[in-house]
């Protein structure tokens, strides 16, 4: 049998709606690992935002920043930061339109403004505080992703202007900004090629808009019961809600564990 690998989204897949890991999920991940399956995180979050989760689940492989930074057992396999000139352009445009930004590096994130209600609400949904302000942060650090804070109807203006960037909404007041080729699917592809894993042995589980491409890319894509409709539409299988142990039920349904 070939080496199997499972890619797990965090919010709404591993974490339930209270940002906690269900006991059944912990047991399922442990059984996967005991069965020799590679368990990888696949998230839009920056690495510094889920180190506690990696420790708790004993996971050392992850696809972060929606595919822009890929690590396997401490080794960086792929990295695709946003170009400085593109960061400068979107910063100027966001200032003109009074839309704040949060710049994310591997180790930290900083805001373009000291206080903004959209940032506060977005961070609260992740159980994090409003980042400190540093308008020069993107010039000093390698930035893999930017969080743009505006409403959904305001996002189109940015999509029209910045053809080399991709905008994926994750919150009522925010969207992820990354290089146009970026996606969890792209990061997964880099990992699969590096590890020489057969695509027939790939599985992915998710619930949000940034999971669509990876659900389509892998051999078996699973949508959580709490997924947005667009994710369910492309999934090979739709499981139960995250609050009803949907992840562990799906892993058992696919016979990855007993």
Automatic annotation (TrEMBL):
Source organism, top-level taxon: Bacteria
One GO MF term: magnesium ion binding
InterPro entries named in the record: Cof, HAD-like_sf, HAD-SF_hydro_IIB, HAD_sf
Cellular component aspect of the GO annotation: cytosol
Gene3D superfamilies: 3.30.1240.10, HAD superfamily/HAD-like (3.40.50.1000)
TM regions (residue ranges): none
PANTHER family xrefs: PHOSPHATASE YKRA-RELATED (PTHR10000:SF25), PHOSPHOSERINE PHOSPHATASE (PTHR10000)
Protein name per Swiss-Prot or TrEMBL: Cof subfamily of IIB subfamily of haloacid dehalogenase superfamily/HAD-superfamily hydrolase, subfamily IIB
Organism: Gracilibacillus kekensis
């Amino acid at each position: 049998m070939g080496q199997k690998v499972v890619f797990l989204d965090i919010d709404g897949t591993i974490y339930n709606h209270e940002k906690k890991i269900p006991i059944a999920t912990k047991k399922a991940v442990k059984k996967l690992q005991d069965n020799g399956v590679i368990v990888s995180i696949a998230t839009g979050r920056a690495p510094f935002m889920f180190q506690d989760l990696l420790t708790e689940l004993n996971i050392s492989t992850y696809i972060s920043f929606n595919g822009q930074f890929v690590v396997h057992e401490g080794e960086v396999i792929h990295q695709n930061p946003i170009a400085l000139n593109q960061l400068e352009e979107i910063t100027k445009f966001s200032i003109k339109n009074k839309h704040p930004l949060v710049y994310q590096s591997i180790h930290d994130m900083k805001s373009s403004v000291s206080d903004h209600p959209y940032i506060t609400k977005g961070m609260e949904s992740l159980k994090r505080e409003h980042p400190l302000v540093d308008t020069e942060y993107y010039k000093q650090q390698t930035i893999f992703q930017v969080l743009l804070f505006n409403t959904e109807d305001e996002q189109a203006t940015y999509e029209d202007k910045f053809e080399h960037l991709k905008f994926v909404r994750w919150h009522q007041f925010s969207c992820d900004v990354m290089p146009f080729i970026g996606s969890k699917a792209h990061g997964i592809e880099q990992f699969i090629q590096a590890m020489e894993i057969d695509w027939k042995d790939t599985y992915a589980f998710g619930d949000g808009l940034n999971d669509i491409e990876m659900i389509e890319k892998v051999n078996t894509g699973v949508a959580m019961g709490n997924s947005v409709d667009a994710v369910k539409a492309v999934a090979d299988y739709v499981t139960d809600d995250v609050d009803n142990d949907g992840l562990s039920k799906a892993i058992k349904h696919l016979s990855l564990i007993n």
